[in-house]
Every structure is written in C-alpha cells, then in structure tokens.
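USER: My hope is that you can spare some time for a protein that puzzles me. I am handing you a single protein, as its sequence and its fold in token form. Walk me, if you will, through where the backbone shape changes along the chain. The protein I mean follows directly.
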Amino acid sequence: MTSTDPSDLASDLLALHGRIRRTTLVGKSDEVTASQTAALGRLVRDGATTTADLARAEGVRPQSMGATIQVLVDLGFVDREQDPTDGRRTIVSATPAGRAAREDSLRSRTRMLAERLAALDPDDRAVLARSFAILRPLVES
C-alpha cells in the first residue's frame, strides 16, 4: 500500500504525472517535440505573449524558447508580430494551423489514453474518476 504521508504522496503524484506525460507524448501523431508541444499549447490556452514571458512560464531560458518558437514559425504554427505599444518587443501567437495541430495532437493522445483506460475494470475507472474530484482542487487557483 502507498504511504499516506503528504510528502510521499506528493512524490508519487509527481512521478506518475511524469510517466503519464511521457506515455502520452510517445503516442503523439506529429513530429513536434515535447517542448514545442508545450509552448504551442500554452499559446493556444493563454493567448499571445512575448518569447521571454513564454520562457518564464515554461521554466526555460529565453534563448531556448527563441529556438523553439523559430521551429514553430517555420512549421506555420506560430506568428511573430511587433508589439504595437513597444517596438522593441515581439509578440508570438498561435496560427489557425497551430491551433489545428494542437487539437489533432490532443485528440490523438486522448484516444490512446482512453483505449488504455477502457481496459481497466469498471470499478477501477470509478475510483479514478473519484480521484479527479479529489485532486482537482489541489491545482486550481
């Protein structure tokens, strides 16, 4: 049985999160890397921003995010535009093609995970559903 100590639970939850993320990224149907997927996903969810702000949000160096954004621009998934209020800054945003690619990737990963979940015993799926209700408040601000 898993320990109920909050530190042990936190460690187990983070490890499981990482494994789920890696498993679903392996099931992606495109050639976009995990970091590119994360950056594009954040742009789709949160809207246009600067490369520096996106780097901060993703916990990477601005230079690394700049390289990630360049690949996404080259793929046609992201646009760069000069900030209308500050000509020194560039704003990046997801293009319609980027939004569609993100949705396709999400659908593919969801389908793969749903197939695995379907193999679980119905009682185990019920426990999992209940756990979401318990976990959700931990991450909602």
Observations:
- The chain has one domain: 6-139.
- The chain has a mean pLDDT of 90.
- The longest helix spans residues 96-118.
- The chain has six helices and three strands.
